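Page 47, continued from p. 46.
Same chain as before, 146 aa.
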Amino acid sequence: MTEYPVRLFASDAEIRRVGAGLLARTLPKSEWTHEAHLAACAWLLLERPDIVPETDLPDIIRNYNVAVGGVNDDSQGYHHTLTLLYIGGVRNFLGEERGAGLARIVNALLLSQIGDRNWPLTLYSRDRLFSVEARHGWLGPDRAEP
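Result:
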């Protein structure tokens, strides 16, 4: 398995720029990294009460993908199970995290178990997680409960 260094955020403003770029569909595709996904989710949960991630984020991500030249199909683009899993994980993490500073909170999230790129594979078999069914709809874990 390839190890990727965690890219931390230098400021609250950097996270807000990522979140706003996602919503406006102006964030460069190259910046839509694993860390950006989690940072945007945390920002939405912490600072955008007008957006309900569980219901709004699927279309936000699908529309962003198309706007930057991507597609949402059986093998690429939006992944429903991963999206809902991470929303729940980020929501749980934020419930435990207290203190000031968006960047500090997001960086702590990125360095946590939930922030690890392989966290979903502690809960799901690879075949189940990367199935067409999991991409298009919610599938519960088959290895452990989150």
